[in-house]
Amino acid sequence: MSLRTFILAAVAAIPTAAAGQAYPSKPIRFVAAFPAGGPSDIVSRAIAKRMAEVMGQPVVVENRTGAGGNIGAEFVAKAPPDGYTVLLGGSYVTIAPSLYRKLAFDPVKDFAPIGLIVSNQYVLVVHPSVPAKSVKDLIRVAKAQGGKLNYGSAGIGSPPHLAGELFKTMAGVSAAHVPYKGATPALIDLMGGHIDFYFGGVSGALPHIKSEKVRALGVTSLKRSSQLPQVPTIAEAALPGYDIATWFGLLAPAGTPKDVVGRLNGVITGIVNEPEMKAYLVGQGVDPVTNTPEQFAVFIQGEIPKFAKIIKAAGIQPE
């Protein structure tokens, strides 16, 4: 064999060798679309740490924040579809089409769903001065006061805001919405008596419920919270069918090879079902849940019209 023939054969073999490398063969970038310290970041770092241990490659969490999660989502949607950039997607991805006229990604077409990781519910809490010890009481008080009550949320278009608007629609009551830049300031103002009620994360509200600085009336999903088992769901307490639960799951760019998606799904399913990880996630106020990529795709498609209906009924205008 001549030197030229040898070189040509060697060059031709490079793509084959690269294609044959086992996935993953280099570090994985794990994008969290919200700031450090929040639920998205906490879940991202816990899952990424175990992914690195299981997969034998670094899994680096990168916080790309802003625009209600849209910046991080857009970044991943436009990343190479090779399995080395993934997103901790969440309900924000399926709410966005109803909130933004110009969206730089399509939640169905631009992502390859990998699998769910957790679901998250919220708790309806009131200031102790509000004469309501049940959801029915709050509805009665709201009707009697003719729209004088107000409620806080973590921001316009956030899941807690939508929880409040769905509550108003189903209960037939009026209450002014007071948006805050995050959950913490809303909770502080609730404890200070500046707002009457609030929909917030269970883990954030729990210490204040225990100290009786706020009173819990109901949780927003169809299932009671493992951290607040004595608190009924809003659906069972007063409004049958009421259901607001959010989620976090892993998404890759559309076009990511099916074998890579399958590998990632197997890894996160195994991790989420580990007893230690389950206990940790529950302690953070979220419920571990897994499914297949196909089930996750159907789930995402169903979430978009669900939130669109709430947003339309509430008259929230897209930006």
Topology summary:
Layout: H1 3-19, E1 28-32, H2 39-55, E2 59-63, H3 70-77, E3 85-90, H4 91-99, E4 111-126, H5 135-145, E5 150-153, H6 159-171, E6 176-179, H7 183-191, E7 197-201, H8 202-210, E8 215-219, H9 234-237, E9 245-253, H10 258-272, H11 275-283, E10 287-288, H12 293-314
Parallel strand pairs: 1-2, 1-3, 5-6, 5-7
Antiparallel strand pairs: 3-9, 4-7, 4-8, 4-9, 4-10
Helix pairs in contact: 2-10, 4-12, 6-12
Give the low-pLDDT segments. 3-20
CA radius of gyration:
22 Å
Our estimate of the beta-strand percent is 15-25%
- Mean pLDDT over the residues: 90
Count the beta strands: 10
Query: Which descriptor suits the 3D outline?
Result: globular
Give a quick account of the main beta sheet: strands, pairing sense, barrel closure: 10 strands, mixed
Overall helicity: 40-55%
In sequence order, what are the helices and strands, one letter per element?
HEHEHEHEHEHEHEHEHEHHEH
Distance between the amino and carboxyl termini: 67 Å
Helix/strand class:
alpha/beta
The helix count comes to 12
